[in-house]
Write a structure and sequence with these properties.
Transferase(Phosphotransferase), domain 1; 5-stranded antiparallel β-sheet; 3-stranded antiparallel β-sheet; binds purvalanol B; Phosphorylase Kinase, domain 1; single chain; 34% helix
Length: 254
């Protein structure tokens, strides 16, 4: 880690702390993501290794944040940390959209900008899906931006599979449900690329409105938001994909 000069903490993501840093040899800005991995005598868990190689493969797309390298830091006698080194981007879509809402002169993002960001988001998502990877947690906080280039990149990719999507972030921050597809909320375990497209739609609406479309604060409230705007699905519509183990259906003979 002597290769990097740590600057300030950017924040705490769902899976770990992110630091801004400079790569000393090149002067380039990087983002260090410290993952809270419990590495035992067995070494790095194979699931984590699989995820890292997945990230490495997927970061060949311009619209996916680039993983530059991985540093495994041994902390004698027993501790061990894994740092993922990424290119640094200067904001996320949540803060960017907020700046259009809260600033001295609130203004719409403008259709050309929304179109440009949506194009990049769709290209990034298509890249993941074409490699058989679902993101499963697309939201404005993990869409990173280079402001001056109006370049959007998807972050926090596939980590969900390794570290399992937590209900709470490893800090006290509550994990948002706002972009979660109804089939996921209803307990389906056989979901597909459509769950990411649901999130993409929610993010599109949020850029236009500068306000979240379905700001639910529980899984139940989240479904109510969706049903209120789009209608409650009928028995027949639900029957097709009725998940066997959803608590919403437990009182029925499955
Ligand atoms: N933020 C990889 N990475 C990043 N992860 C986050 C980054 C970043 N760059 C590469 N950049 C910034 C920089 C400044 C701001 C924001 Cl929000 C993001 C700012 O304060 O305006 N992750 C952050 C969380 C740690 C909050 C955003 O999701 C590690 C992918």
């Amino acid at each position: 880690m002597e290769k990097y000069e740590k600057l300030e903490k950017v924040g705490e993501g769902t899976y770990g702390k992110v630091y801004k840093a400079v790569e000393k040899s090149t002067g380039k800005l990087v983002a260090l993501k410290k993952t809270r991995l419990e590495i035992d005598e067995e070494g790095i868990p194979p699931t984590a290794l699989r995820e890292i190689s997945l990230l490495q493969m997927l970061s060949t797309s311009l619209y996916i944040v680039r993983l530059l390298c991985v540093e495994h830091v041994l902390k004698p006698p027993a501790k061990s940390n894994l740092y993922l080194v990424f290119e640094y981007l200067d904001t996320d879509l949540k803060k960017f959209v907020d700046s259009f809402r809260k600033s001295a002169n609130p203004r719409p993002l403008g259709d050309p900008l929304i179109q440009k960001l949506m194009f990049q988001l769709c290209k990034g998502v298509a890249h993941c899906h074409s490699h058989g990877v679902l993101h499963r947690d697309l939201k404005p906080q993990n869409l990173l931006l280079l402001k001056d280039k109006e370049l959007l990149k998807i972050a926090d990719l596939g980590l969900g599979r390794t570290f399992t999507v937590p209900l709470k972030a490893y800090t006290h921050e509550i994990v948002t449900l706002w972009y979660r597809a109804p089939e996921v909320l209803l307990g389906s375990t056989h979901y597909s690329t459509a769950v990411d497209m649901w999130s993409v739609g929610c993010i599109f609406a949020e850029m236009v409105r500068r306000q979240a479309l379905f700001p639910g604060d529980s899984e139940y409230q989240q479904l109510l938001h969706i049903f209120k705007l789009l209608g409650t699905p009928t028995e027949v519509q639900v029957e097709i994909n009725r998940p066997a183990c959803s608590p919403f259906f437990l009182d029925r003979s499955v």
